[in-house]
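Could you help me review a protein record that somebody else here produced? What it holds is a sequence and that sequence's fold in token form. I need someone to confirm that the token line plausibly describes how this chain folds. Take the sequence as given and treat only the tokens as open to question. This is what I was given:
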Amino acid sequence: MNEDNRTHLLNSLKQGIRADGRSPEEYRDVTIETDVVANAEGSARVRIGDTEVIAGVKMAIETPYPDTPDQGNFMVNVELLPMSNPEFESGPPSIDAIELARVTDRGIRESKAIDTKRLCIEEGKHAWGVIVDICPINAAGNLFDAASIAALAALKNTKLPETDKIDDRLIVNYKKKTDESLPLTKLPIAITINKIEGFLLVDPTSAEEKAVDTRLTVASMDNGELCALQKGGNGPFTVEEIEQMIDLGISTAAEIRKKL
């Protein structure tokens, strides 16, 4: 962001308003659709303003890890498509894609939202692996929150596919879904609070993100309990700012959770 645009943004924030007319603590409109990908076990499309993200869940039968023989596995992948933003490039996952996947994964994993023991089919031999693939369709700011919401909505929408046993092998029949839902026991919502100099704001646009000095992603439960914090950017926080960011993250998550 050039200096003139940054100065204009800061002058607006001093007056408690942003370029699109929102207050610093105001979210854009959020819409959530499910069952949007026919070949996924669960899927969701999330729109936050002009930002649009699709998440799909695929289930696979895997051998459990030796240190957790009675548990299934969970993984998040992100692909930043060039068609969603001209700044993204084709090829191997970029640093931004890896960070987005890890932040999305962390809130779900640390909250133990998925009961991984119920994913175990036969201890030490067979367990379900849950793979969430996230693709932005239009990256217009705040992909961290959009990816988190889309992943949760897709997981909540997931139905396990049928399986057939041949000899000692389990074969997944992806053409038929059962009525069994994924053992999703919690809904951790991750909200990213952004700091531009001394101002805190949620749900930044692409233009605002270019001015962000640092950010904190706050993942919380419906009772306000924290399950993960993830800092991004190089700028510092004061203790008071961290407390404000946590409070803002929890209160904003409560509003978003109503849509799930």
In short: Residues 25-257 form a domain with the Ribosomal Protein S5; domain 2 fold (CATH 3.30.230.70). The radius of gyration is 20 Å. The chain has one domain: 25-257. The first strand starts at residue 30 and ends at 34.
